[in-house]
Write a structure and sequence with these properties.
266 residues; alpha+beta; 3-stranded antiparallel β-sheet; two-stranded antiparallel ribbon; 54% helix; elongated
């Protein structure tokens, strides 16, 4: 089993629940060359930049919903302990007046969420999703109605993780991100040019993660880029046009010189 540590605790995961692994970062001469030729940098040195496919965009959106619902569960866990009327209709987890009841109740909710993850990865044969809504209501009361569809949310997240693991284009984008991160900074123009070469003609999104000063929070900005592979093709077409115009100009100059030469017998 693998053990993952989080700020709120730890969790063990079986090896067959791991969708993919990342190999050590391999150096790239293309990355080094593009970075050398690019003087543009992000506004803040600790900003992170990545370009990804629609799967990554949808995963970030689902992750946002997940974090929001976990915050709701944590807030309800603290409030329900202070409501004497509501306490009669929920499960009793500890003695009355326990100052740690909110934390205990929230950890019990997280255990339900972990069981959904195990069910979604095939590690738990019991249909936890069918009983999840009732268990949440007994644990947190009727105000937890927003958490009733957490099983569907977890299912969508797991499916997108599988899609991301099998998306070769996204894996290439992750490798580019890791190389730029290893270099110590992110250069937007170089990053985009390299991503365009590896984008396989897919529609892409740009993501920038910014730290909020003085507080432990981050802001994620994203932008729809479309098919950035066309940018490279347009640049190549422009270069070919420039070369063609250059040859035409030379031909015209030579024709003018020939026309200005004195004709014999004139």
């Amino acid at each position: 089993e693998y053990e993952f540590s989080y700020p709120c605790g730890s969790q063990r995961v079986r090896p067959d629940a791991i969708f993919c692994t990342l190999s050590p970062v391999e150096p790239s001469l293309l990355t080094d060359q593009l970075r050398t030729n690019d003087n543009e940098v992000t506004d803040r040195a600790d900003d992170h930049l990545i370009i990804g496919t629609q799967y990554l965009y949808l995963f970030f959106r689902l992750h946002q919903v997940l974090v929001r619902r976990l915050n709701i569960a944590k807030d309800i866990s603290s409030r329900v302990c202070k409501n004497t009327e509501l306490r009669r209709h929920i499960d009793r987890l500890t003695y009355e007046g326990d100052p740690n009841e909110g934390r205990i109740r929230y950890e019990a909710f997280l255990s339900l969420v972990y069981s959904l993850v195990e069910t979604g990865t095939g590690l738990n044969e019991e249909p936890e999703g069918a009983k999840f809504e009732d268990r949440v209501r007994y644990l947190l009361g009727n105000d937890s109605y927003e958490l009733a569809t957490m099983d569907k949310l977890i299912s969508h997240i797991l499916k997108h993780l599988q899609h991301m693991a099998n998306d070769e284009t996204l894996q290439n984008m992750i490798e580019i991100y890791r190389r730029h991160k290893l270099a110590g900074s992110f250069k937007p123009s170089a990053f985009r040019e390299e991503a365009a070469l590896m984008s396989e003609g897919e529609n892409m999104y740009a993501f920038q993660i910014c730290n909020v000063s003085k507080i432990d929070q981050k802001i994620l900005h994203f932008e729809y880029l479309g098919c950035i592979a066309e940018d490279i093709e347009d640049d190549e077409d422009t270069e070919r046009d420039d070369n063609k115009r250059g040859l035409d100009d030379v031909a015209m100059e030579e024709a003018e010189q020939v026309s200005k030469r004195p004709r014999r017998g004139a």
